[in-house]
Amino acid sequence: MGTLETLRPGSVVLVGGGPGDAGLMTVAGRAAVEQADVLLVDHLAPADALAWARPDAQVVDVAKLPRGTFTPQERINELLVTHARAGHRVVRLKGGDGFVFGRGMEELLACTEAGIPVRVVPGVSSSVAVPALAGIPVTHRGLVQGFSVISGHVPPGHPDNRLDYAGLVASRTTLVVLMGVKHLPEITAELLAHGLDADTPAAVVARGGHPDQQVHSAPLADIATVALATVAPAVTVIGEVARFAAVLAPLQETH
Predict the structure, then answer these.
(1) Residues designated catalytic
(2) What digits encode the pLDDT tens for the residues 200-213?
(3) For labelling alongside 226, which of 39, 80, 167, 237 has CA 20 to 30 A away?
C-alpha cells in the first residue's frame, strides 16, 4: 500500500503532524490533508497545514486543552467512525507522532473494530525533533548510546505512574520528558533521589518548531526552577547531550 495513494471514501487516515512547523510534516501527511473531506484536528497540530485543505473540507476542533476545551477520546473515536460511515474521507491530524503518547492506537482500534478502513501516516516525533531544533542530539558518539522517552503527565508516586526511575537513572541514557512541565519538580527530585548527579546538564525546549521557540538550560538540580515560566508544550532533555544547547543558541540569536 503506497503512502501517497488516493484516499478512499469512507476511510480514515491517522496523520502525525510533526513538532509544530507545517514544513516538518511528511509529504504523505500533506497529501492526506489535501484530499480530506473532514479533518479532526488537535490544538498541537500545525495550524498552517490547514491551508492545504480543500475550501469545502470540514474542520472539526477536537482539542484537549488543560483547564480548557476538552474533547473526550471516546467522542473523537465516535466522530471518526461516524464521518467515515457517512462516506467521507477522514483525516485525524495531531501534533508529533500519534503513536508516541498520542492515543493513535486507540483510534486505530476504534476504526478497525467498527470495520472502517484505516491507515497510518507517521509524524516526526517531538521527542527527537524538538531537541534537534535546539541543537541537542539525543545520542552522540562516544557520549551516550541510547535515549529513553517518558511521559511526565502524571508525577512519580501517582497510582497511574508505572515508570522505574531507579532503572532510568541506572540506564545511563539521555532522558527525554514529554508533557512534563507541570510535574518537573517532582520528576527531577525523584531522579536525584535515585542517584542522578545534581550537576547533570538539562534543558527545557518550549514551543519547539515555532518562531517563538525558547530554550532554558540549567543543571538537573535547578532546571525545574528555571523552567517555572515555561509555557507548554515543552520537551525536557536530561543528560550530557543537553550541554549542546549552548552551541546553537548564539547562532539562533543572530537570525
Answers:
(1) 42, 64
(2) 999 999 988 888 89
(3) 167
